């Protein structure tokens, strides 16, 4: 059943977790023109007052569920009194066009957190506006979450976190990423996605590339970035050295930690997520 | 490819996690007469010396993966220097008979940690002997894990943990359970499984029922049991009060904690798993 009432949240599931609540909601997104599901973790403190939120952007193929189930983030979020919001990674549903070849790195599960300009993608694929504007406004109006926002993500979602925060100074108070696609316009995943969502003109791609945006950023949120050295996507897709150079060129504060032996999996995320939660809490809770 | 060499482990995956390694192995089980997959978390300390292990028995429908991905247990296991071993929940494969109706509460994913006596189940369904004998012996001969064993589990796996430890005094040094099926012979899940695996004679069922075994136990390992009060299976399937009464009748040490609002999910397990790891470490690491 399609719920087209803007701002109406339908609760799908609720699980008590670390003294707080993990809840999943369905709603109709005006921005994406389809039904969307997102998840939120509300720490125990949210029962008494509005709390800040870390928005988490997941990687290719994920939904709202992967991070909530696998990252082990709720323990420290409960301790700190910080909510976590996990949106889906693309518009969804039979009416939303997906990859014509059924590939996993474009279309459904691969929205790349941008606003598409090319048909047929421009109709639904506006994940930037959804995660930066529509979703926080809906959440802050409906749930015990205030407008003190942090942003983080993994892989495609790390790219999304960097890009969404860098494009919107003042919108987030803290920023971090795990194994982000640092220079999407020069990575095979990014080239495939950008050429379709944004068209063949590569100059238009720069507005959605973290390294390009860093150069002109008017806000210098300190970046915490973790990367596994055994990540199979490190060299070709993620390119953390491009981010290091882009930050160094403009003295953008970056703490890039490269960890031997860690791969691209949620085991890597879980191993370091507590540091990210505390990085965000330092900005969101003071 | 079927590997029939007893004691031969084929590594399937390896992920660095919290300074240690999550590894999945395939091997041929002589006990179950099929190929099996299990997972192990080796903490950083296992690089230098053999470490104790907590054996975790999962619930209905699970494989080796659910606990490792969702419980958030590796952080404290790494801190304590304790391995975690997660077997599958039944024999597997096309040659192993499953539920004739394709149900999820019998057959594949539902071995109930017993030794079946009835055809056609008796041929493969010998999960008790597999998790108590074959698997630990294989692991202790092949991996940096010693014979200091703890046992825990969830739901059907909580039943399995209680029954396997109570049937084998001296084999485990610590025991706990989350939301266990406490009195399987009087629960619908247990009645369905026992009547098929063990036959119609209910007297034979008592040897696989935690409450019955508690009464005659020669060893009194202190039990830590957590249960969610909002667990949908609490009254009909799990019946923790039967365990409380069985323990009280023979002064078996039991710490039964009933937590308001928690359900049967891995969010419940994650919320309390650290306490279980520390409960086991107190026995295994001293």
Describe this structure in words.
- The structure is a homodimer of 286-residue chains.
- Chain A starts with 9 loop residues before the first strand and ends with a helix.
- Chain A has helices spanning 65-70, 74-80, 127-142, 156-167, 188-197, 210-215, 234-238, 240-250, 266-284; strands at 10-17, 20-29, 34-42, 51-57, 83-86, 145-153, 174-178, 223-228, 254-259.
- The mean pLDDT of chain A is 96.
- In chain A, strand 6, helix 4 and strand 7 (174-178) form a beta-alpha-beta unit.
- Chain A has 9 helices and 9 strands.
- A 9-stranded mixed beta sheet of chain A has the order 1-2-3-5-4-6-7-8-9, sandwiched between helices.
- Chain A has 286 residues and is α/β, with parallel strands linked by helices.
- In chain A, 32% of the residues lie in helices and 22% in strands.
- Chain A binds chain B through residues 15-19, 22, 69-70, 72, 74-75, 228, 230, 261-263, 265-268, 270-271, 274, and chain B through 15-19, 22, 69-70, 72, 74-75, 228, 230, 261-263, 265-268, 270-271, 274.
């Amino acid at each position: 059943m399609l719920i087209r009432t803007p701002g109406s949240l339908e609760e799908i599931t609720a699980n008590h977790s670390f003294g707080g609540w993990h809840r999943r909601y369905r709603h109709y997104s005006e921005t994406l023109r389809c039904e969307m599901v997102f998840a939120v973790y509300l720490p125990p403190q949210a029962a008494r007052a509005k709390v800040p939120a870390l928005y988490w952007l997941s990687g290719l193929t994920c939904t709202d569920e992967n991070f909530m189930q696998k990252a082990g983030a709720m323990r420290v979020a409960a301790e700190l009194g910080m909510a976590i919001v996990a949106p889906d990674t693309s518009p969804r549903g039979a009416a939303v066009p997906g990859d014509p070849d059924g590939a996993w790195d474009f279309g459904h599960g691969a929205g790349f957190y941008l606003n598409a300009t090319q048909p047929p993608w421009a109709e639904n694929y506006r994940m930037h506006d959804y995660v930066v504007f529509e979703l926080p406004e809906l959440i802050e109006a409906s749930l015990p979450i205030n407008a003190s926002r942090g942003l983080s993500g993994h892989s495609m979602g790390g790219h999304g976190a960097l890009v969404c925060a860098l494009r919107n100074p003042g919108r987030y108070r803290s920023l971090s990423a795990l194994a982000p696609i640092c220079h999407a316009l020069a990575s095979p995943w990014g080239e495939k996605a950008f050429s379709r969502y944004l068209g063949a003109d590569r100059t238009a791609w720069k507005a959605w590339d973290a390294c390009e945006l860093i150069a002109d950023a008017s806000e210098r949120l300190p970046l915490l970035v973790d990367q596994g050295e055994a990540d199979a996507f490190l060299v070709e897709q993620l390119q953390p050295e491009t981010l290091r150079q882009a930050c160094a060129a403009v003295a953008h504060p970056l703490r890039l930690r490269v960890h031997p032996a860690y791969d691209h999996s949620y085991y890597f995320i879980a191993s370091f997520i507590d540091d990210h939660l505390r990085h965000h809490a330092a900005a969101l809770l003071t």
